[in-house]
Amino acid sequence: TDNSSATTTSAAVSITVTSSGVSSSGTGLNGAYYSNTNLIGSPSLQRVEAVFFDWGWDSPGPGVPAEAFSARWTGYIEATVAGTYQLQTNSDDGVRVYLNNQLVINNWTEHGPTLDTSATFNMTAGQRIPVTVEYFESWAGAVMQLLWKTPGASGFTAIPKVQLYTTNN
Known about the structure:
Layout: E1 29-34, E2 45-49, E3 52-56, E4 69-78, E5 83-92, E6 95-99, E7 102-107, E8 114-117, E9 121-123, E10 128-137, E11 142-149, E12 157-158, E13 164-165
Antiparallel strand pairs: 1-2, 1-4, 3-11, 4-10, 4-13, 5-8, 5-9, 5-11, 6-7, 6-10, 11-12
């Protein structure tokens, strides 16, 4: 179709799609849940997972209370493509996010569902950078979701489990 809306059909063409070389096989971040709001003591529950939860009024799992708990997720985020990224959290209550050991989101307060957004940062395809997400639930509904905006995207989406790693290997 040209600028005057005239159309024509070409002969068949062959298109080859090549991979960026990034083969994502992550299984999630290391999650540790505590039976207090201070991230102290021994974890009551540990598991590997993506950080995308809306527990409502329920407990996150066995041994963790539905109210007055905290969690810390640690590991690595892997870039899908080169470019500018941004992180966002949806939390009810407190949240802190450290990227490459730098605090990029800090809303360690009691609040209803709230979006907090980091500054932009650059990554290369396949690069993994350390991430730590800390969260506490005081009372009422419990939500903790870690999202990202990838290069060229118009909005934030949940970070896929395959882009989250427990180690940098």
